[in-house]
Each structure stands twice: as structure tokens, then as C-alpha cells.
Write a structure and sequence with these properties.
By secondary structure, the chain is α+β, with helices and mostly antiparallel strands. It has 2 domains: 20-145, OB fold (Dihydrolipoamide Acetyltransferase, E2P) (Beta Barrel), CATH 2.40.50; 149-233, no CATH class. It has 6 helices and 12 strands. The protein has a 5-stranded mixed barrel with strand order 1-2-3-5-4. Strands 9-8-6-10 form a 4-stranded mixed beta sheet. The longest helix has 12 residues, at 13-24. The termini are far apart.
């Protein structure tokens, strides 16, 4: 009597990428950040390859994957805390060495997970040949969406979108009520534009807003989150 072997469960996309990186030292079929490209563009103030152009101690927000996490102990303890973390943050442009010192690490130790996609807030470290980051905060993608979104911008074109589309937009926005403001950027055929802020009743929760439904109504690329860029709103639509 022969026994049938049980089929092995297929790896998830994230597991496939992890094993590719372990075996090849690079991602082959895709990149774990590919599906977060829009979030990186909206909420990161800089990319890794831009750090070399920045002054020491400049505050930045970067998005990427945490890798090579090492937990260490400092010889000079403050408030009894000695444990701190070193890691790399890898985005689509490169990887930067990062450190989070004990006081901040005590608050964010649960956020240090190998191969986690996240956003970090920190300052540029220029004490080594290659610029790095001194981390003050680690945020999940969902936390970044909630905390860093400055507004939702909907792009409308005169002659393409009829006035009655506003009613349909209102019904969609009401399904994701929150505290984030919504703006309409209206352009005419000559390229002139006007930006209007919708009323308080149309504020949304950026993590719940049905982007697919809005794009079905307005067109692909017509729904934009605005986020911080060097401390300013990323808005220029």
C-alpha cells in the first residue's frame, strides 16, 4: 500500500520574495515595495539615494523594508535602558544603515520585524562615509496613511466630467468619513486650474476611502493623496 504525499501549500508572494533574496541576494520576480509605490511617493520626503545630498541632522521620512536587524547594548545607559537597534532600510533606490537609540527603541521595539514594509522618521547621520539615519519612529503603512495624509485631491476636467458627478462623488466619500480634508482640482481645456476644498461633511478616513470606486468614476490617476515633502504639503496638481 503506497501512501500519497500531501501537497505542500504554495508560498505566498511575500514568502517567495523572501526566499529569492535569501538564495540570490536580490529580488528576482518582483520587489516587496512594488505594491506600495504610490504610498512611497505620497508619504516619503526622500529616498535613500537622496540622503547624500542632505545636511547632517536634517529630518526625513523614508519608506522601505527593514532588513538585517541587530539588537545591541550600549555601555552608557540612560534611565536604565541599554538595548538599541541597528538595521538597514531598503527602498527602491538603495539601502541605508540605521540606528535607533535606547529611549526611542523602548517605545518602538515591537515595530522591528525583519522584512517589514514600513515608514521611518529620523534624521540624517553623516558620521560615516555613507550617510545613514538615526531613527526616532517606525510606522506601519497604515499608520503612515492615517498620520501623514494631508488631504485627498480629486482631479476633474471641464468637458470630461459633468456637474452631476459631484453627487456621485459625495455618495462615495460618505462611506469613508473621517478627519482628512478633500480637495477638488478642476482644470479646463486650456490647462488653467482651480482648487476647491470640500465641506467638513466630506472629510474622509484615508485608510478606508474606496479609491477604486473613485477612479472608476473619475478615471485612472485622478485620485491623489497629498503628503509631506520636506515639511510641506505635496499638492502641486
Amino acid at each position: 500500500m503506497t501512501s500519497k504525499s500531501c501537497p505542500r501549500p504554495e508560498w505566498s508572494d511575500s514568502e517567495k520574495l523572501k526566499h529569492e533574496k535569501e538564495a540570490l541576494d536580490f529580488y528576482f520576480s518582483s520587489h516587496p515595495l512594488a505594491q506600495y509605490a504610490d504610498d512611497l511617493r505620497h508619504f516619503a520626503t526622500h529616498t535613500v539615494n537622496q540622503l547624500g545630498n542632505l545636511a547632517a541632522n536634517q529630518e526625513v521620512i523614508l519608506g522601505g523594508v527593514l532588513t538585517q536587524i541587530r539588537l545591541m547594548n550600549t555601555k552608557k545607559a540612560r534611565n536604565g535602558n541599554t538595548r538599541y537597534a541597528r538595521c538597514k532600510l531598503e527602498d527602491l533606490t538603495g539601502a541605508a544603515e540605521c540606528v535607533m537609540w535606547p529611549d526611542d527603541y523602548l517605545r518602538h521595539k515591537d515595530d522591528f520585524v525583519e522584512d517589514r514594509v514600513c515608514f521611518v522618521r529620523g534624521s540624517v547621520d553623516r558620521t560615516r562615509e555613507e550617510p545613514g539615519l538615526i531613527l526616532a519612529r517606525v510606522m506601519s503603512v497604515e499608520q503612515a496613511q492615517r498620520e501623514l495624509t494631508k488631504g485627498l485631491v480629486l482631479l476633474l476636467r471641464l468637458g470630461v466630467h459633468e456637474p452631476d458627478i459631484i453627487t456621485a462623488l459625495g455618495r462615495i466619500l460618505e462611506r469613508a468619513r473621517g478627519s482628512c480634508p478633500v480637495f477638488l482640482c478642476v482644470r479646463d481645456g486650456a490647462g488653467k486650474k482651480a482648487q476647491l476644498k470640500l465641506g467638513e461633511s466630506y472629510r474622509i478616513n484615508p485608510t478606508n476611502v474606496p479609491i477604486a470606486d473613485l477612479e472608476l468614476l473619475l478615471g485612472e490617476g485622478a485620485v491623489k493623496f497629498s503628503g509631506p515633502v520636506n515639511g510641506h504639503s505635496r499638492n502641486g496638481y
